[in-house]
Specification:
Strand content: under 5%
Oligomer: single chain
Radius of gyration: 21 Å
Strand order of the largest sheet: 1-4
Structural class: mainly alpha
Largest sheet: 2 strands, antiparallel
Distance between the termini: 17 Å
Shape: globular
Length: 469
């Protein structure tokens, strides 16, 4: 578990560690605001799109193999990111980094669901959730230290020793789960999903950049967004088609009420987390002109509280009334964002600390409980697909959070010329998203807590396990 968490931490760390480096990238690479937002979005998009496929690849070739391949790709791309000398080269390297992360992430959940019985899964997911929460919001602190003392390139170079350690521990400690079947691959589904998400995110994020008009020739932003929606609709219809023998996203899985609602809430938490920390990191270095290190210190309480609270929240999530954890968590996140919105200014930024604490506690109460509630009642035959879908929804939320907040920042900044007003507008949007998360959690169906007596049956996934010698 520890070996997997190291690599998992690294993939999620890279979703936010770049935030405090964005102003430095603008200066050193001669990049625009839209360019550096794409440094964030390219990684998130390449992370999100293949997740449905990589979960199935793990089912076919074994999660340990896919995790190892993804880890090697991630390390190579991290090196390329650090050596990039232009925004275009950096964005391209971030795409490959995201593909590596996409190969790794579903395998961590696959190991948890296969190796831990229901009665003990909450504690395992508590550790998994604490790693997710800690990595997602500790990036600014570590990034601030590295950018201030070594340069922005080192936010990528730091992955190399961590990744090598994760690779060694993977081969020494992690069992080799051999899949019992060889699923077919939904190639058409992959193509439709990639095109749909790619076009939709490109259109939303670059709309203001192109004045919401023509992009190239007769093609307009509106047409690109519409095409993205149509491709996603075609993807859903293909998943429901009787001719699709092995769909990437079997729609029958959404008959499970908690899983369906959990994915809605999962998108909401993804939008909120990315939507807060990207504009906040830019604001702190643009208006009060904090250093990258001070920016990381201001956001550090959210990192600390999220990681600590997630450990306990994961254990509590086995209870029948566990749905109140994400309800309270989303409410605390909304309260933190609301307080932060009114405190934004060019004075002392330490006044933001209480809002950071609220935000971090809220995130810790959402991450792991939401995962446990959403997947606890899934049929075991759907666990592989469920893991891929659930991870995809989180990353899709991250991508939307990056794209939508970038669009809001650019629109309000173009209209007012005031960056503080632009950040406040983005935060108002996030408040509505937290309300959506609360509504989804309120609608969860209560499920009886798993009993220890069920553990022996539930812990056997029917997979032969080869232990490393």
């Amino acid at each position: 578990m520890y070996a997997l968490c190291i690599g998992f931490f690294m993939t999620l760390l890279d979703t936010t560690i770049v935030n405090v480096a964005l102003p430095s990238m603008i200066t050193d690479l001669g990049a625009s605001l839209n360019d550096v937002i794409w440094v964030v979005s390219a990684y998130l998009l390449a992370f999100a799109v293949p997740l449905l496929l990589t979960g199935r690849l793990g089912d076919r070739f074994g999660p340990k193999r896919l995790y190892g391949i993804g880890l090697v790709l991630f390390l190579g791309a991290s090196l390329a990111c650090g050596l990039a000398t232009s925004a275009e080269a950096l964005i391209a390297a971030r795409v490959f980094q995201g593909l590596g992360a996409a190969a790794m992430t579903p395998q961590t959940m696959a190991f948890i669901t296969h190796l831990f019985p229901p009665a003990k899964r909450g504690a395992a997911l508590g550790m998994w959730g604490s790693v997710a929460g800690l990595a997602t919001v500790s990036g600014p602190l570590l990034g601030g230290v590295l950018v201030t003392h070594l340069g922005w390139e080192w936010i990528f170079f730091v992955n190399l020793p961590i990744g090598v350690l994760a690779l060694v521990l993977l081969f020494l400690w992690v069992p080799d789960l051999q899949p019992g079947r060889a699923p077919k691959f939904d190639v058409l589904g992959v193509v439709l999903c990639c095109l749909g998400l790619g076009l939709l995110v490109f259109g939303i994020q670059n709309g203001e950049h192109y004045g919401w008009g023509r992009v190239a020739g007769p093609v307009t932003i509106a047409e690109i967004i519409a095409a993205g929606v149509l491709f996603l609709a075609a993807f859903v219809f293909w998943q429901a088609s009787a001719r699709n023998a092995e769909p990437l996203m079997p729609l029958r899985i959404f008959r499970n009420r908690n899983f369906s609602l959990g994915n809605v809430a999962n998108i909401a938490i993804g939008i909120t987390v990315t939507g807060v920390f990207v504009p906040l990191a830019l604001f702190l270095q643009t208006v009060p002109k904090l250093s990258p290190l001070m920016t990381g210190l201001v956001t550090a309480p959210a990192s600390l509280m999220s990681g600590v609270v997630a450990i306990f929240a994961g254990r509590w999530s086995n209870r029948a009334d566990a749905k109140y954890l994400p309800i309270i968590g989303f409410a605390l996140m909304g309260a933190g964002i609301l307080v932060m919105t009114f405190l934004l200014g060019d004075g002392s930024q330490w006044v933001l600390l209480p809002s950071m604490v609220l935000l971090g506690v809220g995130m810790g109460m959402v991450f792991s409980p939401l995962t446990n509630i959403s997947t606890r009642t899934l049929d075991r035959s759907l666990l592989g697909a469920g893991s891929g879908i659930y991870n995809t929804s989180r990353q899709f939320g991250n991508v939307l959070g990056s794209a939508v907040t970038a669009a809001v920042l650019q629109i309000v900044l173009a209209a007012t010329g005031d960056f503080t007003s632009a950040v406040r507008a983005a935060f108002y949007l996030l408040l509505a998203v937290t309300v959506l998360g609360i509504a989804a959690a309120l609608a969860f169906r209560q499920v009886a807590a798993p009993s220890v007596a069920d553990s022996p049956r539930a812990s056997d996934p029917g997979l032969p396990v080869t232990r490393p010698s």
